[in-house]
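Hey L., structure's done. Input below.
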Amino acid sequence: VQLQASGGGLVQPGGSLRLSCAASRSIFTINVVGWYRQAPGKERDLVADITGQTTNYADSVKGRFTISRDNAKNTFYLQMNSLKPEDTAVYYCYVDVWHGDYRRYWGLGTLVTVSS
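Output:
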């Protein structure tokens, strides 16, 4: 599975961005999709994921970010509102695909910069 993340950019604090992750094949049967982010000098951290029918969020983004998926478009999204400078990071999308056990596929990442 190849993933292409897009939608990053420069935004002022309080602004919004929507990230997209387009898959090279159908995601209808993929149970787990999500987003991580990595800020400069820090580890890669989970932002949000959808596992089955359940959505999960890091505490730092709850109430501000929303993850969603559109199986018909083979795409999932991360809507980011009320952005803060500490949200600045490279955002990576991923999917976990079952091959007898789970294998994780990553997109290349898209840079989000929150600054005035």
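Residues 7 and 106 are 16 Å apart (CA to CA). The longest strand covers residues 89-98.

-- N.
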